[in-house]
Every structure is written in C-alpha cells, then in structure tokens.
Design a protein that fits this description.
Length: 301
C-alpha cells in the first residue's frame, strides 16, 4: 500500500517508527508536511499538491497533526478523504477531540466518568464556578493548551479567583476542573487501536509538580489496568470516533475519570514503557481496514 504520513518532521520518534513499521511490512510510506500540502477543490477531479507536484492516490493516510495546525491539517486530511483515501483517524473525529469543551460534553452525554468541570464567560460568575467544582484546590485549563502548557493548580480559593479573573481578563477560554487529590500527580495513558486497549502506562509527575506530562519531566512505567479502566478508555475513543487514541485517565475514589482523548498520541513514551510495537499495530490495523471511501461521516462535516 501507498501510505501518506502527515507530519511536520520526519525525524520525530513517532514518525520514524511509523515509517519503519510501514517498510517492514512492505508498504510505501510518504511523509508530507501538512502545511506544505495544498489542494484544488473541484467536483471533477479533486487534487492534492505538495511542493509544486500533484500527489498520487494514497491507500491510507496517517494524520500526525499538531494542535496548533488543527484547522489547516484537518482540511488537508479531508481532501484526501474526498479522494477516497482511508484515514487512520477521520478529520471530523480529530476536530471533535481537539475541542476540549465539546469533547467533554460528548463524553458526559454518554455517561463517561469525568472530573467535575465548569465553564463560564463572565468574571461575575467566578464564585459560583469555584463552588460548582467543589472549591479549592482546583485546576484551571486553557482550552487551547497542550502538553500541560496553560494548566494551573490553584491551591486556595483566593488563588483560584485571581487566576480565573486574570485569564478572563485576557479573553482566554478556560475550563475549571476539580483537583483529584487521590491521583497523587499520576495519570494513566491507555493506547486504543480499533476498539482495544493495546498498551497502557502510568505517568507520574516529578516532585513538586502536579502535571504528569512526559514533556514536563514526568516519568512513565508499565501498569496493569482494571476492566473498568479498559472499558472507559475504549468507550471514550469510540465516542470521539477515533480508531487510534491516547486516552488519559485519573484514578479517583469514584472510579476512572477521563481527562483527555488525544487523536495523535506520541509513541515514544508508551513503546519504551511497555516494550510493545505500537507502530506495527497501527499499520496492522490499516492493513485490515483500509478500503477506498471508507469513512463513517460520509462528508457530513
């Protein structure tokens, strides 16, 4: 198969591993920078071009689209979908998961466990917002933040008020979430492929830090998850419509709580922590599912 990998940097660990997995299985991978890929939107013969040349038909497309280029990246992926290429994750599903507020509302509608979350527009509602999520300590999150950037732990009510009012004063969209103390600065990353959890790891924040992201100095280790955690991760990925997802869970006194569903999960941490060939599993999934014009949304946007 001819497989396009939408990635801005072919030297990144995840991209390198996907290239290796494609080649090991006899496929032809082509790495394309989504921001250098452009399109001719026409009814007769929709085209995608890259650096002055028309691109051939791809049997499948693996989107590794960064959060900062979601709008353009999903537009490029959608063009390949129009041409009939099989997307590992569909453009609509990626857009859905990248909107933190929308994704939480969809998960809540399906009864999936979540930290109590508040969202408001006016600073006048700050007092009730804090009360709504159970008071301080609480977590304030920028809607556009990634990799733990724009996430603040407010340990007192006064600190929470100050942080919320500061963000609102800058016209930033923020979520207010309860702080799950019993998680002890740890979360669980479950890697879901095709409706199955194929690998999972525990991410532990370093001393003095509450964010467990590996980019922020967190450590990763192998963990055995419970059947409930497994079911929650699978269901969360399905609600988003993602074939491949990194589902981040917190262990709480009331069961597993979904923090986030990531449509482009990094492979380095989970492969090194578990010793599993996740990249190979992704290509295996494509082999079993890639068919022309096989998308669930059928152009519904």
């Amino acid at each position: 198969m001819k497989i396009a990998i939408l990635s801005r940097n072919k030297k990144l660990y995840s991209t390198r591993r996907l290239i290796e997995a494609c080649e090991q299985r006899g496929h032809e991978p082509v790495v394309l920078d989504a921001l250098r890929t452009y399109m001719n939107i026409t009814s007769n013969k929709p085209e995608a071009h890259f650096k002055g040349e028309e691109l051939p038909y791809f049997d499948a497309v693996i989107p590794r689209i960064g959060a900062s280029v979601t709008f353009y990246g999903t537009a490029v992926l959608r063009q390949f979908e129009v041409q009939g290429s099989f997307p590992l994750n569909e453009s609509v599903a990626i857009s859905r998961s990248r909107d933190k507020l929308r994704s939480l509302q969809l998960l809540a509608r399906k009864g999936i466990g979540l930290p109590n979350t508040g969202f408001a527009n006016s600073p006048d509602d700050t007092q009730d917002l804090i009360k709504m999520v159970g008071g301080a300590p609480l977590v304030v999150k920028l809607l556009e933040g990634t990799q733990g950037i724009g996430v603040v732990l407010a340990e007192t009510k006064k600190a929470a008020e100050s942080v919320i009012e500061a963000f609102m004063g800058l016209k930033a969209n923020i979520l207010i979430q309860e702080y799950i103390k019993e998680a002890n600065g740890a979360d669980i990353r479950c890697l879901v492929i095709g409706g199955k959890v194929v690998a999972s790891m525990k991410r532990q924040a370093q001393a003095g830090e509450f964010r467990s992201n590996l980019h922020r100095g967190g450590s990763a280790s192998l963990i055995k998850i419970t059947p409930t955690e497994r079911q929650t991760a699978v269901k969360a990925a399905q609600v988003m419509g993602l074939n491949v997802a990194g589902v981040d869970l917190l262990r709480s006194e009331r069961g597993p709580l979904v923090m986030e569903v990531n449509s482009s999960p990094g492979l380095e941490g989970i492969e090194k922590a578990t010793g599993k060939d996740v990249a190979g599993m992704i290509i295996e999934f494509i082999e079993g599912n890639a068919k022309p014009h096989k998308t669930r949304t059928k152009g519904k946007g």
